[in-house]
Write a structure and sequence with these properties.
The chain has 403 residues and is an alpha/beta fold. It is 37% helix and 17% strand. It has 15 helices and 17 strands.
Length: 403
């Protein structure tokens, strides 16, 4: 893949006069118009600043939420433009449409070194269309705004969408610094991990992690499982799980993973105790029970303190750790201790520690950890998982074609 270094080299280090369309991932959580986690915006800044400093006229395209091809004010990127301006320390022009008259005017009037953000690309049905011709027609309109394309939205590179895939077929293209860094980290996890290598998986469902477990179970030294998905593993061991989240159709799959781990000499670490409550609620009374003795009228909402200590020890002693998925319902303080323990241990890992985006990234920030306490926090949960599953990601594959 061509990089921004290559792009600068081709233009003698000066991008003055070049209109550069950047696909960023600015899909941040909002409470009304208030951004509750600006991590993805902050992650986009280095690439945008580098291009602007080189004199480029930078047009940023991104999405927010799932407006399904309709203009939905609740999903406007206007608040993101305001926050981006603050982080860059200079005004960001905001175009109230994506490829319409306003975007065309902004693109034509943009000065060298100036940055503009186009309105939510998913307000346009062509962005996510399954029909190649419909998607391609919209990509033509996007490409007409620029001279060069830079892909820097790692959270969407697993999507075959107009602003991710089709535009790269229509313009000279390069990978941005954020995507480049993500790929380098993921290659280390899959091709040359320093050992011991621990993979820590949580979240609600085994079915969400099947591909990752399949691909990494023989590559890791330890596979640590927590979160809601663990109850399917406990059921596979023959234990009752009360009213805990359970994917009954995945019990046999979980049994297979337990057997594969044993055969491969991989240490499969499951909780020995869990925190249970009678209901899914922040104020539900919490009790610690053995993992093989969950009462019928209780549901597991976190790993227990003994398990948290054991999980943390595995993480601290590893030289490479990939973590995806919280250990419990971290949004409720009574059930956040398992996730907090794993996060704390990751900050003490003497090697590469990777937080796999999505809920995991949200959890560490909500629990008060600084981003730079970890080796790497991915901006793309789904994209990270698909890469680790060994899948080809359209947004990366198309850039390799252009190289």
């Amino acid at each position: 893949m061509k990089t921004i270094d290559d792009l600068l080299s081709e233009h003698g280090g000066d991008l003055s006069g070049q209109r550069v369309l950047v696909r960023s991932d600015l899909n941040v959580p909002l409470d009304g118009t208030n951004i509750t986690d600006d991590g993805r915006i902050r992650a986009s800044v280095p690439t945008l600043r580098r291009l602007a400093d080189a004199g480029a006229k930078v047009l940023v395209t991104a999405h927010l939420g799932r407006p399904k091809g309709q203009h939905a004010p609740a999903y406007s990127l206007a608040p993101v433009a305001e926050r981006l301006s603050e982080l860059l320390g200079s005004p960001v022009v905001f175009a109230a449409d994506t490829v319409g008259p306003e975007a065309q005017r902004v693109a034509s009037e943009l000065a060298d070194g100036q940055i503009a953000l186009l309105e939510n690309v998913r307000f346009n049905a062509g962005e996510t269309a399954k029909d190649d011709d419909v998607r391609g027609a919209f990509a033509d309109e996007l490409a007409a705004l620029a001279d060069v394309f830079v892909s820097d939205g790692f959270g969407v590179v697993h999507r075959k969408q107009a602003s991710v895939y089709d535009v790269a077929k229509r313009l000279p293209s390069a990978v941005g610094g954020l995507v480049q860094a993500e790929v380098e980290v993921l290659k280390r996890l899959t091709e040359s991990p320093e050992r011991p290598y621990a993979v820590v998986l949580g979240g609600s469902k085994v079915s969400d992690k099947l591909g990752v477990i399949d691909h990494l179970i023989e590559k890791a030294d330890s596979l640590v499982v927590g979160g809601g998905m663990v109850f399917t593993f406990l059921a596979a061991q023959g234990h009752g799980v009360g009213s805990s989240l359970l994917e009954a159709d995945q019990i046999e799959v979980a049994k297979g993973y337990i057997e594969r781990a044993a055969a491969a000499g991989v240490d499969l670490v499951l909780p020995t105790d869990v925190v249970v409550a009678p209901a899914f609620a922040a104020d539900a009374p919490a009790t610690v029970v053995a993992a093989d003795a969950i009462p019928d009228d209780q549901m597991g909402l976190d790993i227990g303190p003994d398990s948290a200590a054991a999980f943390a020890e595995v993480v601290r002693s590893a030289r490479t750790v990939f973590w995806n998925g919280p250990m419990g319902v971290f949004e409720f303080e009574a059930f956040a201790q398992g996730t907090r323990a794993v996060a704390e241990a990751l900050t003490r890992t003497e090697g590469l520690s990777v937080v796999g985006g999505g809920d995991s990234a949200a959890a560490v920030r909500q629990l008060g950890f600084a981003d730079d306490a970890f080796g790497h926090i991915s901006t793309g949960g789904g994209a990270s998982l698909e890469y680790l599953e060994g899948k080809a990601l359209p947004g990366l594959a198309v850039l390799e074609e252009d190289a």
